[in-house]
Every structure is written in C-alpha cells, then in structure tokens.
Design a protein that fits this description.
The complex is a heterodimer of chains A (218) and B (465). With 218 residues, chain A is an alpha+beta fold. Chain A has a domain of 129 residues: Immunoglobulin-like, CATH 2.60.40.10. About 17% of the residues of chain A have low confidence. Chain A starts with a helix and ends with a helix. In chain A, 39% of the residues lie in helices and 23% in strands. In chain A, a hairpin with an 8-residue loop joins strand 1 and strand 2. With 465 residues, chain B is an alpha+beta fold. In chain B, the strands form three sheets. Chain B has a 15-stranded mixed β-sheet that branches. In chain B, helix 2 crosses helix 9 and helix 5 crosses helix 9. Classes of the chains: A alpha+beta (218), B alpha+beta (465).
C-alpha cells in the first residue's frame, strides 16, 4: 500500500514539476505589460504633480487670462495681427461629418524664436449676444507649427455669422499683456450655410446606404 | 592470380594515403580550413537554375496604397487589408498591361496631380519611379510600349466612367504631367462596386490612422502635398520590436568558411583568406573579390566593370538573379522590395532594395558614419552584377510590441525641434516616414525626416516609458 501511495505521490510531484516548466512564459508579456502600466501610472502622477505645482506657482489658467482681459477680448474693434502668428487658417474639419466643426491652424512668424520652455498660447473666442465664449481647448505652441485646434462653432445660417477672435500671447507674460507687444488678436467671420433638403441628394444617399448594406450582406 | 590479404591491405593503405594528399592539396589551394573534399560544393551539382520570371513580382511592391474619400483626408491601407492585395493584383495583373498595350495616343490630362487626388480615388504610390521597360517585363507585355511617359511613380484609380465595365486610371511620373487611361475591368479584378464601397466606407474604419497634406493646414510649407499624420491628439499604433540575426548557415566561424562560400559565392574561389582578427573573410578569383564580415555584411565586387549598360529590365533581371540565388539557398523569408533605381551612369544601373516587415521598410543604421544605408545596393548592367553590398539578415518578432504615437506634430514639437532647433525657425520637409532601422541585433522604429537637404533619423519613443 505504501508503495502505491508513494507512486501516486511521485506522479503528482512530477506533474507539478512538469507544469511549472510548461506554464513558464518566456515572453513574460503580462509582466511586461504590468511594468509598463505601472511606469505609465507613475509618470502620470509625476506629470500631474508638475502641472499642479506649475499652476500654483504661476497661477496660470485659461480662465484667469479670460477674466483678466475679458474687455479686451470682447471689443471687436480692437485687433492687431502679425505679432506671433502667420498663415492662420480656420477651415471646416475634414475629419468630422458635422458641418459646424472647424479646425484652426497657424504657424509662428519666422522672427519669433521661443526660448527653452516658453510657449505661445492660442485661444479662439466666438462672440455671443452679450459676451464671448471660448472655443474648444486652447493650444500651446512650443514650435513653429501649431497643433490643429478643433472646435464646434455655435451658429449656422447666413443671418448668424460666427464672429471669431483668435488671440495669441506669450504664456510667461500673461499677467502683463499689451496689444501689439506681446498680444495678438485677429478677427474672423465664418458663415455656415444651413444644409437644405435636396431631393436628388437624399435619393442618392439612400441608394448609397442600400448598396453598402448589399455589399456587407454579400 | 590470387592476391594475398597483406597485399590487399597495402593497396588500401596506398589509396588512403593518396586521398590524404589530394585532400591536403585541395585545402592548400583553397587556403581555407575544412574537412572533407565531399563537402566542397564543386563536387555537388549546382543549385537549380533560378527562375526570375516566377519571382520577379515579389520584388516590386507599392510604397503605399491610399484611399482618398474626397475630403482631403487620406487613408493608407495596411498590407494585410484584403483590398490592398486585391487593388495591387488588379493593377499589375490587368490594368497596367492594358495601358502598356494601348497604341500611342494623346492621353494628357489637363489637371495637376494635387487637384486630382482631392477627388474620391485610390492612389497607388511606388517607392520610386519605375521605368516603362521594367513594367513591361513585370507584366509580360509583348507589344512594344508606345506610352507618352517613360516612368510611373503614382497612379490614381477612379471608378467613375460611363461604361459599367470600365474604370479610369491617371498616371504620373513626376507629379506634373498626368495621363488618363480608360481600362476594362477584367474577370478576377476588383469590381467597380467594391471600389465604391471602399471609398464610401473607409472613413468608418477606425483602425486606420488618416493622413493629411501639410498644405491643408500650413500653407507656408512649400511641399504642400506631403502627407503625414497631422492631428490634434495622439494617434497610437502598436509596432513590434524585431530581432535581427545572421542566418545560421553563414555565421562567420573558422570551421564554417566552406559553408559560407557554398551559400554565397556562385563559383569556388581560388583564394580564401580569413582576416587575422576573425571579423571577415576574403574570397577571390580572377573575376571577383568578395569580403564577408561577421555582422552579415556581404561585399561583392566584379574586377572589370565593362560591358553594355543595356535596358533597365535586363540589369534588374541580373540583380534579382543574384539576390534570389542566395535568398533561396538561405531561405530568407522577409520581403525584399525594390526601393530605388538610379540610371544616370552611362555604364550601369544602381538598384536599392530593402527588407519589409509589417508594412514598414527595414534599413541599416550606420552608427559610426551616422547615416542610413539600404539593406541591399546592387550595381548591374545587362550582363552581370558588378557590385553588391548586402546586409544578409533574418528578422523575427522580438516577442514584444509597444504603442507609438504616429502624430507628426507631437514628434515635431516634443523631439525634432529640441534636437534640431533650426527647424523652429524654418521647417520645409521633403519626406517623412516611419521605418525600422537596425545596427545590431534589434530593429526599432524610427522617424525619418528629410528637411532642408538633411536626412534626419530619430528613434520613436514608445508611450508609457
């Protein structure tokens, strides 16, 4: 009996030993992923801390800028181009189906050279009845090319043009902005034509949908 | 006469002694260490003849196939996309042959390329401009081509035409002159409905990261039609890390020199000399000098560079035979594609090839010279290969993949400008791509940017590190 038990025990030990080898994962992908995730979380924590610290020291926020210079930003009569930006374009967003989605892009003027860590903040506002409204999330420019700045314009129709003000300033000097010195404001007007119902187009798009469904089913 | 056993033994001894002398002589002449005369390739039949006709299509691939849905957003298809191979096979197997066989006609289309590709179309881009002769050879066209163009670099396929069985192709060699052709959709080619389906639904494919032209966002950029991922947010893509190894058969060791010769040199050399430090071996004879290095670099040079230049397709055939002979012997399974043709020299052509994996080109990073080299560069004329520089490598997954941000603007802002501050003042890009580069045992993804006549390479930073 003892021999039988010993034999069974031995088999179990061998199976366990075999399993350890068989389950050993050379790639250690889960472990790598875990390490990567941990690193990412750690980095996020550090970045968050830096962001909070930065805000605390400099007290910069988009809202703080808006509150401080609200009157200047709202007065459409005041504008000054060519301080920081050139080739400012506001075009209909290519990626979106919504005809009110637009993209702002721009380049820094050749003579504007940013020192290490400096940035130009670009904000876009649209004029509403009694105030102006910030569009999308403002962008910071660290280099010559500005990251595309996407936003949705609130008004459509010929009677409701979107009166846009593009504001650019040096972030480090945000507390003492002077038009033409370290602040640039450019006016734009964009009219979004309302989509009218065109019978022929609606037939065509219906036909396209039918064809698409047919292709999927095939 | 009956021979005694002792006499038979003596005869056997003498025979064995003679064999020893013969073997010693062979090794003496070869100047290489070795084992037996039977392992030398001269006593075995040659590798069967290489049939380039059967494999030539494997070496010519599109640089990119892009779908334009008419909104100035461009969607590059991955090589594993079903449409990718269907479009390419239809183009090379049917449309191209029809174009080359058409009689000479005034096919000039009076619209520039940039305006044309803003329409709904499928764009096939070659890695380099391919001469008509090579395209004829590729498609097996027998009629002499009477085309108004000498080379093709890009093709736009537009499924709009009056006839249900026809589509329109626009070709360009330089991006300036555009030629229009109407071709029949033959059996086996991708159908017109499928083109429409692709054009209409590409935007819904969330796995494809779209490209935009610089011109559409930054009118100040001179090369406005240059495509890149220009987006507001991060555009992440999983890219595998590659392990780079020299094939086992040709690892440079003292006891492996015979084998290396067998695999890489078509005829046995009269002189073989390993270097003193063991990092290279020289094979030479009356015709050629070949150096092979321990990093897998194969340097072949024909002694006399004479002979007629011939047509590009004839020289390419020589180059492909040269590669295919070694590739077949070594069973290299990574894709090797033609990436450049230079035909300016009056005596020869220079062909550049690179390895490809996961839709990305694999090039060599020369860390000493701080330059990027192609994996294979072959100089050939119609008669033979005159010079070849080839990093003979195999590539496999390094068992991990990382996420990389393909948004060029993020790379430009976070890395390019800090490394090259001059691009903060003026930036005029001519070329932008993401490719694999290798210098040792690993191939990693890099940004390759050509701007202001300067070729820049910077390692892509994985997310979360």
């Amino acid at each position: 009996m003892a021999k039988k038990l010993m034999f069974i025990l031995l088999v179990l030990i061998m199976m366990a030993a075999g399993s350890v080898v068989a389950m050993a994962d050379e790639e250690s992908a889960p472990l790598m992923n875990m390490i990567a995730e941990t690193n990412e979380n750690m980095q996020n924590i550090v970045m968050f801390d830096e962001a909070v610290q930065g805000e605390y020291i400099e007290e910069y926020s988009h809202q703080a800028v808006f509150n401080k210079y609200q009157d200047l930003f709202q007065d459409r009569e005041i504008q000054m181009e060519g301080v920081y930006l050139k080739n400012i374009c506001i075009n209909k967003s290519k990626e979106s189906y919504n005809n009110q989605d637009y993209t702002l892009s721009a380049m820094l003027l050749d003579e504007v050279v940013l020192e290490n860590g400096e940035s130009i903040v670009v904000m876009a506002f649209v004029q509403t009845d009694d105030s102006c409204e910030l569009l999308g999330t403002p962008k910071q420019m660290f280099a010559k090319l500005m990251k595309p700045y996407n936003f949705r314009l609130p008004f459509s129709g010929k009677e409701n043009p979107n009166l846009i003000r593009v504001v650019a300033f040096l972030k480090s000097e945000w507390q003492s902005l002077e038009l033409g010195e370290n602040l640039e404001i450019t006016n734009f007007e964009i009219i979004i034509e309302e989509e009218s119902f065109i019978f022929k187009d609606s037939l065509k798009s219906s036909w396209d949908i039918i064809k698409s469904v047919e292709n999927i089913l095939q | 006469m009956r021979l005694s056993l002792e006499f038979k033994k003596s005869i056997l001894m003498i025979f064995l002694l003679l064999l020893c002398v013969l073997q010693m002589g062979i090794l003496w002449v070869d100047k290489s260490p070795g084992v037996s005369i039977f392992s030398s390739q001269r006593f075995w039949p040659k590798t069967e003849n290489i049939k380039v006709e059967e494999v030539k299509k494997n070496y010519i691939h599109p640089g990119r196939i892009i779908v334009s849905d008419g909104t100035e957003v461009y969607w590059p298809l991955e090589p594993d996309n079903a449409f990718y191979s269907a479009i390419w096979n239809g183009f090379t197997g049917s449309y191209l042959k029809q174009i080359l066989e058409q009689s000479a006609a005034d096919n000039v289309y009076y619209t520039d390329w940039d305006t044309l590709i803003k329409k709904k179309c499928v764009i096939v881009e070659f890695k380099c401009s391919v001469p008509v002769g090579i395209l004829q050879w590729l498609t097996g066209t027998e009629k002499p081509a009477m085309t108004p163009f000498k080379e093709i670099s890009k093709v736009a396929i537009i499924p709009d035409s009056l006839n249900h069985n026809e589509i329109i192709l626009y070709l360009t060699e330089d991006g300036v002159n555009v030629y229009e052709y109407i071709v029949n959709i033959e059996q086996g080619s991708i159908r017109k409905e499928d083109y429409y389906y692709l054009l209409d639904t590409i935007r819904d494919n969330e796995t494809i990261i779209p490209l935009r032209t610089f011109g559409s966002l930054y009118p100040g950029i001179e090369n406005g039609e240059l495509l890149a991922v220009l987006s507001e947010d991060k555009e992440l893509k999983m890219i595998r890390d590659l392990r780079v190894t020299t094939p086992d058969e040709i690892v440079l060791r003292q006891d492996n020199i015979d084998r290396i010769q067998e695999y890489l040199i078509e005829s046995s050399s009269t002189y073989t000399a390993p270097s003193k430090d063991g990092t290279s071996v020289l094979f030479s004879d009356d015709e050629k000098i070949v150096y092979y290095y321990d990093n897998g670099f194969f340097d072949y040079r024909y002694r006399t560079w004479t002979g007629p230049k011939g047509a590009a397709e004839e020289a390419l055939e020589q180059a492909l035979t040269f590669i295919e002979y070694r590739r077949k012997n070594l069973e290299l399974d990574s894709g090797i594609y033609l990436t450049d043709i230079v035909s300016t020299n009056p005596n020869y052509y220079v062909f550049t090839f690179n390895y490809f994996m996961y839709g990305m080109e694999i090039k060599v990073l020369d860390e000493k010279g701080k330059t990027i080299k192609p994996s294979i560069r072959i100089i050939a004329n119609r008669e033979r290969v005159l010079d070849a520089k080839w990093y003979i490598k195999t590539f496999s997954d390094n068992d991990f993949a990382k996420n990389y941000d393909l948004n060029f603007i993020n790379f430009y802002e976070n890395k390019l400008v800090s490394e090259y501050p001059q691009f903060n003042i003026d930036f005029q890009p001519q070329h932008i791509s993401t490719d694999y580069l290798f210098s040792g045992m690993r191939a990693e993804p890099y940004w390759l940017v050509e701007a202001d006549k300067k070729e820049i390479y910077l390692k892509m930073e994985p997310e979360g590190e």
